[in-house]
Amino acid sequence: MPVAGTGLRADRVCLTATIVEKRRDAKMRLSSAPSEMWKAPLRTLSLSLAVAACGTPAAVAPTNPRASQTLDGPRGHAETICAQSPIYPEASTFFSSATVEEANSIDLPGNGDLWPSCASGDVVYFAWGDGFGFTPNRGARRPDIGVARVLGLPWDAANMRGTNVVDDDHKKQSVFRVWTKGPYYQKPTGMLCRGGKMYLAVHDLNASSYDDVPAATIAVSNNGGSAWEANASPMFVDWTFTTIMFIDYGADGKNAVDEYVYAYGLDHNFRASTHVIDPQGLYLARIAADKDLRGRDNWEFFAGLDTGANPTWSRNIADKKAALVDCTRRDAGKDHDGSVISQGGVVYDAPLKRYIYTSWTEYTFEFYEAPAPWGPWRRFLHKDFGPPPWTAQKHGGYATSVPSRYISEDGRTMWVQSNTWSSGVDHNNLALRKLVVTTSSAP
């Protein structure tokens, strides 16, 4: 990463930072854990940097743009839009109501967080981060990433069962590579089951701050997740499109509406932070389903709508435009002012013919719906759980997603996965809560 104000890369310098925090009721604080991010506010932040020459390069990824830099302004980069002329999505008119439970009501024993998923047949495959998964044998070293298979449905939660398939960590890297030198490790962001194969998007996350994701790639498995293959170099670098989420079109893509695979990406980070630029745009790409997803030449990026409101596409990632821009900050006058665009999940609710993007700030859930992958996206739920400490009866969470297999036959009841583990409650596991929606008219 660059050293602010110096123009020097982190692979050329050593950086020492001293952070002094003082609390006040209406500001953010720095934190090293996702669930701690917003808990304690700060009054002042004093940052002193000492820079000295280094011998060995610390990173292979190129320099991250500074917050003051113009970011793709002519093409309407989301973060530039929010800095210059903020825009906000309209409220949904498709859903007339939406309610989500105040707390997780199903807790499976799988240890870890994030849990992006895809389904094949009756099995839902999940990927976790920072945990042991479903193994009862928890050794001294906790895996950084793993894949598990889960049988059963939330409507019969007592019979839901999970089994580990594989796990890995940044020391071994026997399954998933870490591309960036320094304090980085592997975290899963999206899964896809299609064409008899399973795909897992993995990015490099800075373990010292739980922020900053400079590189990402996609691995493929041909045997149910036991073995994985990835390219010899990362597919995405420069903090661009490095948090990848696939549209979940049902088991093995059975509800796909065309012959493409769709993937969303975030720039800079997987959530709001005080370390790098916040993601405020949800970007979109498509790949022909019969092509190799690991070939970047096969990717086309959403480049905006033409005069007839039809999507346009470009193989040049520099041409990408956000399918959703939301400049909302939660909540500037209360406990934090974080971006509402984060790593969640996008699922196609086939009975309702609607795409649902579940995002979060941890204090809040921010859910959106759209008739097509490129939008228009409208917010249908903003749920504020209040500041921690939380209780077992009321708490927010991060990494919100809805597995397609956990949607009812009428599409109006679904189960949302989310995690939190250091704000008075511990849900660092596969944890679900019910979301119920009603529509304004028949879909």
Query: Whole-Å distance between the termini?
Result: 48 Å
DSSP, total strands: 27
CA-based gyration radius? 21 Å
SS strand fraction: 35-45%
Helical/strand content category: mainly beta
Total helical elements: 1
Tell me the overall shape: globular
Report the average pLDDT across residues: 84
Oligomeric description of these chains: single chain
Structure, explained:
The protein has 443 residues and is mainly β. The chain has 1 helix and 27 strands. The strands form 6 sheets. Strands 13, 14, 15, 16, 17, 18, 21, 22, 23 and 24 form a 10-stranded mixed β-sheet that branches. Strands 5, 6, 7, 8, 9, 25, 26 and 27 form an 8-stranded antiparallel β-sheet that branches. A 3-stranded antiparallel β-sheet has the order 10-11-12, with no helix packed on it.
In brief:
With 443 residues, the protein is mainly β.
Keywords:
globular, mainly beta, 443 residues, 27 strands
Layout of SSEs?
Layout: E1 2-3, E2 8-9, E3 13-22, E4 44-53, H1 78-84, E5 95-100, E6 106-120, E7 123-133, E8 145-151, E9 161-168, E10 184-194, E11 197-206, E12 216-221, E13 243-248, E14 260-266, E15 281-288, E16 299-305, E17 311-314, E18 322-325, E19 329-330, E20 338-339, E21 345-349, E22 354-360, E23 364-370, E24 378-384, E25 398-401, E26 413-419, E27 429-439
Parallel strand pairs: 13-21
Antiparallel strand pairs: 1-2, 3-4, 5-27, 6-7, 6-27, 7-8, 8-9, 10-11, 11-12, 13-14, 14-15, 15-16, 15-18, 16-17, 19-20, 21-22, 22-23, 23-24, 25-26, 26-27
